[in-house]
Amino acid sequence: MIVTLTPNPSVDRTLHLDTLVRGAVNRARSVTSEPSGKGVNVSLALHTTGTPTTAVLPVGGPAGAELTDLLRATGLSTRPVPISGAVRSNVSLVEADGSTTKINEAGPTLSESEVAALLGAAEGAGGPGDWLAFCGSLPSGFGAGQLRASLVRARRSGRPVAVDTSEAALLELIAGPSDELPDLVKPNTHELAAATQRSLATVGDVVAAAQVLLDRGVATVLVSLGGDGALLLERAGAWHGTAPVARVVNTVGAGDSFLAGYLAQRHLAGPSPSGLDQPAALSSALTWGAIAVQHAGTVFPGLPGPGRRPEVRISTPDPSQPLSEPAL
User: Fold this and answer.
1) 13-22, 101-110, 181-190, 263-272 — which is least confidently predicted?
2) What is the dihedral of CA 117, 157, 210, 239, to 10 degrees?
3) Which domains does the chain have, with CATH numbers?
4) What's the pLDDT tens digit per position in 276-308?
5) Whether the predicted model's global pTM rises above the 0.85 cut
6) Residue among 97, 256, 277, 318 flagged as catalytic
C-alpha cells in the first residue's frame, strides 16, 4: 500500500476562460470543484487505477467539510484528522491555450497536538514495506523538523519514504545523515536548483545536481522537467524520458500524477528495489503526467486503452541538451 500525507490540502476550484485579462471582468466558460493537495492528488490517481492507497490529511472549517464530502464520493480510503482551523480553497484560472494562473491560500495554522496527530495517523497507516509519501507545502505551525522526525521513525520501522516538497522543508529533509534521508525525492528543476544551490541550464546540470543528492544518500531522484520530460537517477544509472502531447489543457496536479505513476510501478515491483524496471517506471510516470495535462481538472482521469496512451521515449541523458525553462 502507498500512504500519502498532505499537511495542507485544499478544495481546488478550476475556472476555464478564453483569455485572462488583468484588471477587467473575466467570465468563466466552466467551473469545477475537486479535492486537492499534492498527496491527495497522488492517492486519487493511485485509487483510480486500482493501486491500494490511503490519504492522511487535516480537515476543518467549511472547505474541510466540502473536502471530506468530495473525497467520500470518490471511494478513496482516507484518515482525516480534525483541526480547529479551516482548510484552504485554491483557485486555478486556465486559459484556452493551456496557460494556468494558480492562486493558493496560505492554509490553516496547526497546533503542536494537531501536527502530532497528523503524523501519528500517517505513521499508523500501513506497515513495514508500505510506502509513505510526504507531499506538498507545510502550513503554519508544522515545522520541517517535525516532518523530518516522522520520516526517520517511518524509515526505522521499515517504511520506504518518498518526499515531494520544496523550500525549507526539502532542505531540512535532505540535510541529515544517509540513514535518515528519504528513499525518493521528486523535485522539479527549480526545487532542485534551490536545494543544491546550483543554476540548471542543461540536462547535464540537472544530472550533476541530482548526483549531489545521491551522494548524500538519497536512493532515487525523480526530476520533472516540464516540457523537457523527466529524469530518473539512481546510483545504478540515469534515464531521460519524454512524452510529448499535442495540446496542454491544465498543468495543475500533473506533477502529482507523475509521481503516482512512478509509485504505482514501485508497488507492483514489491519491496526489493532490484525487482524494479527503472525505464518502465519512468515511462509509467511520464504516461500518467502526460494524460493529466490533457485533462481539464486536477484529479487524474484514469488510464485510457494502450492504443490511446501518449508515446513515451526513454533514452540516456544528453548532457548538452539545453532546458527550455532553465532554473537560474
Assistant:
1) 263-272
2) -120
3) 2-327 (3.40.1190.20)
4) 899 999 999 999 999 999 987 778 888 888 778
5) yes
6) 256
Residues sharing a CB contact under 8 Å with residue 221, sequence separation 6 or more, in sequence order = 184, 185, 186, 187, 192, 210, 213, 214, 231, 232, 233, 234
Contact in structure between 176 and 152 (CB atoms under 8 Å): yes
How far, in Å, CA of 209 to CA of 117, rounded?
35
Q: What is the CA radius of gyration of the chain?
A: 19
pLDDT tens-place string over residues 199-230: 999 999 999 999 999 999 999 999 999 999 99
- Summarize the confidence of residues 40-45 as an average pLDDT: 97
| Residue 178, burial from CB neighbour count under 10 angstroms (0-12, 13-18, 19+) | exposed
pLDDT of residue 304: 84
Q: Confidence band (pLDDT; 50, 70, 90) for 272?
A: low
Report the chain's terminal Cα–Cα distance, integer Å: 38
97 is catalytic: no
**Quick one: cell of 1?**
500500500
Question: Phi and psi for 233 in degrees, rounded to 5?
Answer: -130, 135
Residues 112 and 234: their CA atoms lie apart, in Å, by 36
Residue 273 pLDDT: 64
Which positions ≥6 away from 205 have C-beta within 8 Å? 198, 199, 323
For residue 274, is pLDDT > 70?
A: no
Predicted pLDDT of residue 119 = 98
Backbone angles phi, psi at 100, to 5 degrees: -125, 130
